[in-house]
């Protein structure tokens, strides 16, 4: 216990309490700093501070009004800024500590996917392959055709064959299983990466990683280039010799084959 100014005492738990709040505010600020949501949070903090001040000053009516405004503002914030809050939750689920409780795709699956991606790249066959890393991607799975089939290079190439009825959309892989095909992915609002315009396939691959804890491998039908979307960022035209290491790093697999 530390005594300040002769009357103010601070315990270890007080310090821990302040540190937790500091870290929480830092995470929220870093995630929402480029959005309008941050301005709303600042207003809510100011209202909360004024509420404390008016309560201390025994201004009961003003305090009641401020608390009602803060309550309504908090509800409005949750409703209006769902995408930003989703980004915040996604950032939390992508920390190393949280990943200890999540499953990761094994290297055998990655080898099959890479082989399929290279073959489709050589033939200019477009593809979207999503690696699920959390259960909430089930919403995306439900938009497609349920398969529950073991991952294999031949099956992936067959699915994305232009003559296949399942080729349009994305494949979702859960561990060693192709959970579904022809899945509909949310489109990202981003339309360019640098000087390059993004087509629908790349925007869809980017969009799913903005809204869910997932990694998406994209094969361009036009150029044959292979890209990886992860954490709302898109790495395009990955060299074949770097594809395995990039995918392993993104998915979080521990070892490579």
How are the SSEs placed, and which strands pair?
Blueprint: E1 2-4, E2 8-10, H1 12-32, H2 36-56, H3 60-80, H4 82-93, H5 96-99, H6 107-122, E3 127-132, H7 138-141, E4 145-150, H8 153-160, E5 170-174, E6 177-183, E7 192-193, E8 196-197, H9 200-211, E9 214-219, E10 226-230, E11 233-235, H10 240-251
Parallel strand pairs: 3-5
Antiparallel strand pairs: 1-2, 3-9, 4-6, 5-6, 7-8, 9-10, 10-11
Helix pairs in contact: 1-4, 2-3, 6-8, 6-10
Please describe what this structure looks like.
With 257 residues, this protein is α+β, with helices and mostly antiparallel strands. The protein has 2 domains: 2-93, no CATH class; 107-251, DNA integrity scanning protein, DisA, N-terminal domain (YojJ-like (1, 3-Layer(aba) Sandwich). Helices cover 51% and strands 19% of the residues. The protein has a 7-stranded mixed β-sheet with strand order 4-6-5-3-9-10-11, with helices on both faces. It has a two-stranded antiparallel sheet with strand order 1-2. Helix 1 packs across helix 4 (82-93), helix 2 runs antiparallel to helix 3 (60-80) and helix 6 (107-122) crosses helix 8 (153-160). It is elongated and about 75 Å long.
């Amino acid at each position: 216990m530390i005594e300040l100014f002769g009357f103010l005492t601070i315990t270890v738990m007080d310090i821990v309490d302040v540190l937790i709040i500091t870290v929480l505010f830092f995470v929220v600020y870093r995630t929402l700093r480029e959005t309008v949501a941050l301005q709303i949070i600042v207003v809510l903090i100011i209202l909360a501070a004024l509420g404390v001040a008016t309560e201390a000053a025994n201004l009961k009516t003003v305090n009641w009004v401020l608390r009602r405004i803060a309550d309504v503002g908090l509800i409005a914030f949750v409703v209006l800024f769902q995408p930003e809050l989703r980004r915040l939750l996604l950032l939390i689920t992508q920390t190393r500590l949280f990943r200890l409780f999540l499953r990761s795709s094994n290297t055998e699956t990655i080898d099959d996917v890479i082989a399929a991606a290279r073959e489709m790249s050589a033939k200019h066959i477009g593809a979207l392959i999503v690696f699920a890393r959390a259960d909430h991607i089930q919403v995306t799975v439900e938009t497609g055709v349920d398969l529950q089939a073991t991952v294999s290079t031949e099956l992936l190439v067959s699915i994305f064959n232009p003559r296949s009825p399942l080729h349009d959309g994305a494949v979702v892989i859960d561990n060693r299983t192709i959970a579904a095909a022809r899945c509909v992915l949310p489109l990202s609002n981003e339309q360019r990466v640098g000087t390059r315009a993004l087509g629908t396939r790349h925007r869809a691959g980017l969009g799913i990683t903005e809204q869910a804890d997932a990694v998406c491998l994209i094969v361009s039908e036009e150029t044959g280039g292979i890209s990886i979307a992860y954490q709302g960022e898109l790495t395009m035209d990955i060299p074949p010799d770097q594809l395995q290491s990039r995918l392993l790093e993104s998915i979080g697999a521990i070892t490579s084959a």
